[in-house]
Q: What sequence folds into this?
């Protein structure tokens, strides 16, 4: 079920009630585990089997790694876990993509091959929980972490519903210890958690779905050539939409977990105020970028084996990171562009190592970063390369006969909302939500909270899925 | 802080509900949705349905299920969907071996003879698989809709804001030109035109303007041939598992009809369809009782006239298929005089000649 649905509201009230009853801690954990399975099976009950598979394989593999003294045997168990997780991911997420490319490859070689139908449903959030569970066996194998002592705690780590389908991608070392001792939110944390849930749903239901999705769809889902104004407005709208959608999900997830007494990692830190791309990736989808850094970039060599190897590692990490988002070459291009940006930034930082920009230049570099990030969003959002080029041509004023597509109300709402998002990010780039909230008078917080909740209610929402669920 | 915020939310929501009810958004009016459709689609198999109606908004709004039941003793399952080509839905029933009932296909020629499905394409996907979450969500929404009037998608915050722009940018047709709320839907998808379309000139004029006279390109021979072929195949399949199919063409106002005929004449569309699929049907032109009925926004009948048209076409159908029998205690026939107030035709409403 999605957070922005009546079903979830009822579900969450039941879970919160159960969690506040005077049961033993073990019973409460079992309640949370069962609730998490119900949460996941509300999409498609048979896919719970995949969760069980992932849980059992990784638990067993980690235990075997710890028991083994033979390095080869340890490595074999680690590979069992990696192959099982990536195998499931490859089959469900990349099977169709691989088959299509294989067919295309044969076709270019003159071989006519008609593959069998490969019409399978992608289990929601599969990329998130396979990465989370795989990190467990990898950490145990690399001796970065001890295995969990309790199967229930581990199963709950894999399945815990707030982070299950779209992150934040939690590490076992962050979450499993939280399950070891009784936890319950006090009144203040419950209040803060509910406020975060409201903020997250406001971002998703009102801003992303209510105001930003439509201008994006009008331009990106049409065959007409956009002019500069429409192309930029639609792309800026998408930059706002995907931020409000994904950060809205993460904020809600963090709020939900907080209401139950648990802490999840921050996933966004005002990314549209980033100056440079390494800064952007420290602020955007933080748990994925740190995962890719720890489990891909560093094992590939990182920056420890010379310049060439560093750039190769960087590009490989970003290309794979792109492919993680979806089985499409457009996502690979998106990742590749970010890899190129990061590489270019690295070169420039070396060339201008002593340079310290003044405030105006610093702000200008931030806007340039945001503009270049928007260029990458074109490939992320466009359904085909042809459409991506059409929009990019529009953004650079190269479409010969552009057709106006967006109404004034769309232009204005994108300007106000996305302008507001960027302004807030710059205002808060060096602080935290908690620090700001501590300074704001209670009366203003109360009124803001009430208006956000009221806006969610009268916007209603269509219970549309979060964009990142498809990944 | 929490309690104060909660009190503010409750107060603001109550005021909003009061305002929405003053705009004739009333509890019990369900939103048209694929989820609501699937509930009825499941009944087709679960209840061994005798009569099913598919089609677009015309047969949906213009059929009074209560009148149908009073005449025949059977209450049809209403599966018509606004803005949607019903041919794929006919094919869906054709693929359902369990179905042995009568399908009444209500068509608007320009909607039926086209390639794309239209607004409710998702309904078929839902029919194949509906998640437990979607199913529970529908029933929760249904429960709340019985008490709250503001749960109307066409009166959501963002929709209302977007309609403030009366197409200020030259050359762009914006959200102002979308179809606004024009219908209400109750239990078992009994649908009728929204009362304010009949009483509020601004809403009625907007709806008329959005239809733009149903102007459009002429339907191509290829689309006609494909539609006829698919219909014939579907009808044969339904008959093969014990069902039957009959067609109905509801009326529309002359302001639309002239353009509909230009795009697809009766000879190229309706007549060819009945001949190719070997089916029988009732065309509004052949039903004298439909003359003089009221079409507030040109395309659909008024709430009062829908039972009149239903009465007329159901009586005709009883003569075309043995699957529908007129009850011995059926109410007396209705006519335009039962729904057209004296002098209304010359005032603010449009009638069919």
A:
């Amino acid at each position: 079920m999605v957070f922005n649905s009546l079903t979830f509201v009822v579900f969450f009230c039941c879970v919160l009630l159960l969690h506040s009853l005077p049961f033993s801690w073990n019973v409460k954990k079992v309640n949370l585990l069962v609730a998490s399975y119900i949460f996941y099976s509300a999409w498609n009950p048979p896919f719970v089997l995949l969760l069980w598979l992932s849980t059992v394989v990784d638990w067993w593999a980690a235990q075997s790694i710890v028991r083994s003294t033979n390095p080869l045997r340890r490595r074999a168990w680690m590979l069992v876990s990696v192959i099982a997780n990536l195998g499931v991911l490859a089959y469900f997420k990349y099977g169709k993509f691989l088959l299509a490319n294989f067919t295309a490859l044969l076709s270019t070689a003159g071989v006519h091959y008609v593959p069998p139908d490969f019409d399978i449903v992608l289990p929601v959030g599969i990329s998130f929980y396979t990465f989370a569970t795989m990190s467990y066996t990898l950490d145990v194998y690399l001796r970065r972490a001890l295995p969990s002592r309790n199967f229930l705690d581990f199963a709950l780590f894999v399945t815990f519903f707030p982070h299950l389908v779209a992150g934040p991608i939690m590490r076992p070392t962050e979450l499993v210890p939280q399950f070891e001792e009784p936890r319950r939110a006090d009144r203040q944390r419950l209040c803060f958690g509910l406020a975060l849930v409201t903020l997250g749903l406001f971002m998703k239901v009102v801003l992303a779905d209510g105001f930003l999705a439509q201008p994006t769809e009008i331009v990106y889902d049409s065959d007409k050539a956009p002019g500069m104004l429409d192309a930029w407005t639609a792309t800026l709208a998408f930059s706002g939409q995907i931020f409000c959608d994904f950060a809205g999900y993460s904020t809600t997830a963090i709020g939900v977990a907080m209401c139950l007494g648990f802490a999840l990692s921050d996933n966004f830190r005002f990314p549209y105020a980033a100056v440079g791309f390494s800064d952007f990736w420290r602020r955007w989808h933080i748990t994925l970028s740190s995962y890719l850094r720890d489990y891909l970039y560093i094992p590939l060599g990182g920056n420890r084996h010379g310049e060439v190897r560093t750039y190769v590692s960087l590009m490989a990490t970003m290309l794979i990171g792109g492919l993680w988002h979806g089985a499409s070459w457009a996502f690979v291009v998106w990742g590749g562009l970010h890899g190129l940006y990061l590489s270019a930034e690295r070169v420039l930082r070396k060339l201008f190592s002593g340079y310290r920009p003044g405030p105006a230049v610093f702000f200008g570099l931030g806007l340039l970063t945001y503009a270049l990030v928007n260029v990458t969003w074109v490939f992320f959002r466009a359904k085909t390369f042809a459409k991506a080029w059409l929009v990019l041509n529009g953004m650079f004023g190269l479409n010969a006969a552009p057709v106006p597509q967006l109404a004034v109300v769309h232009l204005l709402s994108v300007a106000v909302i996305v302008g507001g998002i960027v302004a807030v990010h710059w205002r808060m780039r060096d602080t935290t939500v908690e620090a700001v909230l501590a300074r704001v008078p209670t009366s203003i917080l109360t009124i803001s909270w009430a208006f956000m909740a009221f806006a969610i209610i009268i916007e209603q929402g269509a219970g549309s899925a979060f964009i990142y669920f498809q990944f | 802080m929490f309690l104060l915020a909660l009190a503010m939310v409750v107060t603001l929501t109550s005021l909003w509900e009061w305002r929405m009810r003053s705009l004739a958004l009333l509890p019990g009016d369900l939103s048209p949705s694929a989820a609501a459709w699937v509930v009825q689609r499941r009944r087709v198999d679960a209840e061994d349905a005798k009569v099913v109606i598919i089609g677009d908004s015309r047969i949906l709004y213009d059929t009074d299920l209560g009148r149908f039941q009073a005449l025949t003793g059977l209450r049809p399952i209403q599966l018509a969907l606004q803005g949607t080509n019903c041919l794929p839905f006919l094919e869906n029933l054709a693929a359902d071996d369990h179905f042995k009932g009568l399908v009444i296909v209500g068509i608007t020629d320009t909607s039926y003879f086209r390639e794309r499905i239209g607004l409710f394409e998702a309904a078929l996907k839902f029919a194949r698989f509906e998640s437990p979450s979607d199913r529970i969500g529908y029933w929760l929404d249904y429960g709340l809709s019985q008490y709250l009037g503001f749960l109307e998608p066409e009166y959501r915050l963002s929709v209302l804001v977007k309609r403030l722009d009366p197409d200020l940018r030259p050359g762009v047709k914006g959200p102002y030109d979308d179809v606004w709320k024009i219908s209400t839907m109750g239990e078992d998808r009994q649908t009728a035109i929204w009362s304010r379309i009949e009483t509020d000139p601004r809403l009625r004029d907007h709806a008329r303007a959005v239809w733009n006279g149903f102007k459009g390109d002429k339907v191509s021979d290829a689309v006609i041939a494909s539609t006829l072929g698919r219909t014939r195949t579907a009808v044969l399949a339904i008959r093969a598992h014990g069902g039957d199919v009959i067609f109905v063409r509801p009326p529309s106002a002359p302001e639309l009809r002239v353009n509909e005929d230009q795009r697809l004449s009766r000879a190229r569309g309706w007549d060819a369809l009945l001949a190719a699929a070997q089916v029988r049907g009732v065309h509004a032109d052949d039903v004298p009782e439909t003359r003089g009925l009221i079409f507030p926004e040109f395309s659909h009948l008024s709430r009062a006239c829908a039972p009149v048209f239903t009465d007329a076409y159901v009586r005709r159908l009883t003569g075309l298929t043995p699957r529908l029998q007129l009850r011995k205690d059926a109410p007396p026939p209705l006519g335009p005089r039962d729904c057209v107030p004296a002098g209304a035709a010359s005032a603010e409403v449009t009638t069919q000649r």
